[in-house]
Write a structure and sequence with these properties.
- This protein has about 525 residues and is of the alpha+beta class.
- About 25% of the residues lie in helices and about 25% in strands.
- α8 runs antiparallel to α10 and α14 packs antiparallel against α15.
């Protein structure tokens, strides 16, 4: 498809370190600002979690160092007819407990991924029939053609049916679960590493899988992952040599890390878009002083919020230049016609006028949900937004909390409990359809996965119609025009407030050879550490 050239340009592979063959087995010490709460691969549709669990679990397809699709647990596939995909499974692969990988595991994983409590339901549509042909062949029967059916299946991780049934883990663990399940504390995949121990909030230790079916490109005997929420502590750990790689590097510390003889910062463009969402579904907001109605149902209020945001101030003061302001909900590398869109100008006076016209001359009060350990400067961005909205009379009560609690509250398993929030999104397909369907699609059909990540509840049926055409349109130029038409509808509706694409900034020991992809997944199975 035409997006591939754009994707390859964006997904630049950066290699740091020494060019030698894998040396003696080493221990990799890795730190991130956020925690790995659950080992259940269907609990949280979040790229950092996918990266962690991608050391243990694998999908039918994989993505290489350039983000190109390559065979994974399926060695090949074809479409005998437009509505039937056939996947031929790799023979001789075993799960880490010794169970053989078969078609039964694929069928089971498809059902489990679509079950209540899963946060990856959009990976496979509810109306897709998954049929075992034989032990090594699976058919996916669709109700309509879908040329990008498998684009997100690198992070639809296949689970061991026998293991899940033996351990009462056939149901996915919801992000909002208060009691850990067996699958959230234990793992059994086919990947490069096994989980030796998992202490949520403290430490997770991975051991190299000696029976991995691929030839390893790493020289690691183990990975020790430690969540370090404090920016200062995380940087100090890197500079002292206590960790070998950490992310993100706080923007204010990039120069310091780069100037240290033993460390450096890997920088690059990221495909993630950071944005603000407003609840447009409920008749009354959950968290506001306005009762009996929902201010965000009025387009003038949504436009006022958009125009009250000083995106250049966020770029220069908060992000210190390491962000690209965006007019759309997708990175420009993934949609060539994004150049045709411009952000509404920052206009606090006009925003104040719009609020008055909407019946809120003195503004109103609303709670804002925000993570404080997920995105670059996430809580600081939210604090800036609070100040900007105060200028137009809106009092924002900021609820910033760790991502485990944040996602459990606002996502589908938690009931979309938010009135106003900040979120980031990297389309798993590297395609606009993912954004139009998952983030902006109407979520009014309980039998459909459309709008699974549409926390705002925005709904425009005309956009949904266009989105469905985008999925099946084979001509790249016509497809881009349809995508443009859909994004124009969203822009006119002030459906969301896109902010920017953040830049990648990983702190890395100079003893480490690392692959950095534009999806911001830290993947140790490609790392080589010098003794």
């Amino acid at each position: 498809m035409s997006l591939r050239q754009s994707l390859l340009a964006a997904a630049t592979v950066t290699m740091l370190g020494f060019a030698v063959a894998p040396a003696s087995a080493q221990t990799l010490r890795y730190a991130n600002q956020g925690d790995l709460k659950s080992l259940d691969p269907y609990t949280l549709n979040e790229s950092t979690t996918h990266a962690h669990l991608g050391q243990v679990y694998e999908g039918l397809i994989a993505r290489d160092k350039d983000l190109k699709i390559i065979p994974g647990l399926a060695e090949r596939w074809e479409t005998p007819e437009p509505t039937r995909w056939r996947f031929h499974l790799r023979k001789g692969v075993k799960f880490q407990n010794g169970d053989p990988f078969t078609a039964d595991d694929v069928v089971f994983s498809a059902d489990r991924a679509r079950a209540k409590g899963s946060n990856v339901q959009a990976r496979i549509a509810a109306d897709v029939k998954v049929v075992k042909v034989d032990d090594n062949t699976v058919d996916f029967i669709l109700t309509s053609p879908n040329p990008i059916l498998h684009y997100q299946w690198d992070t639809w991780y296949i689970m061991d049916k026998k293991w899940a049934e033996a351990n009462n883990a056939t149901a996915p663990t919801p992000a909002a679960a208060t009691t850990p399940s067996f699958a959230s504390l234990n793992a059994n995949g086919t990947g490069a590493f096994t989980v030796e121990s998992h202490q949520p909030g403290v430490k997770t230790v991975f051991k190299a899988n000696p029976n991995w079916w691929r030839k390893p490109e790493h020289n690691l005997k183990e990975i020790v992952f430690t969540p370090i929420g404090s920016d200062a502590t995380r940087v100090a750990a890197l500079l002292s040599g206590e960790v070998d790689i950490m992310e993100p590097v706080p923007t204010q510390d990039i120069g310091r890390v780069d100037s240290t003889p033993t460390t450096q910062v890997m920088k690059g463009p990221e495909l993630r878009t950071i944005f603000l969402g407003m609840d447009q579904a409920r008749d009354e907001l959950l968290y506001s002083n306005i009762k009996g109605k929902n201010p965000f149902k009025d387009i003038k209020v949504r436009e006022a919020f958009f125009k009250a945001i000083d995106i250049e101030l966020i770029k220069t003061r908060v992000m210190r230049g390491l962000s690209t302001p965006s007019a759309l909900m997708i990175a420009p590398q993934l949609f060539p016609l994004s150049k045709d869109f411009t952000r509404p100008k920052f206009d606090p006076d006009g925003a104040k006028k719009l609020l008055t016209e909407a019946g809120y001359p003195d503004g109103f009060q609303v709670t804002m949900d925000c993570p404080n350990d997920r995105y670059v400067n996430d809580a600081t961005i939210c604090q800036a937004v609070v100040g900007m909205l105060a200028r137009i009379g809106v009092k924002v009560d900021l609820l910033a909390q760790p991502k485990a609690q944040y996602f459990a509250k606002i996502l589908k398993p938690g009931g979309y409990q938010s009135s106003f929030y900040l979120l980031g999104w990297t389309p798993g397909t590297s395609d606009s359809h993912n954004v139009l369907y998952d983030i902006m699609g109407c979520r009014d059909d309980p039998k459909s996965s459309r709008g699974e990540a549409n926390v705002a509840g925005y709904c425009n049926k005309k956009m949904d119609e266009i989105t469905d055409k985008v999925l099946v349109e084979p001509d790249p130029a016509k497809r881009d025009q349809l995508i443009k038409e859909a994004f124009e509808i969203a822009a006119k509706d002030y459906a969301y407030i896109p902010l920017h694409q953040q830049a990648l900034a990983w702190g890395v020991s100079k003893k480490l050879k690392v692959v950095q992809r534009a999806d911001n997944q830290v993947l140790p199975y490609w790392m080589v550490k010098e003794p």
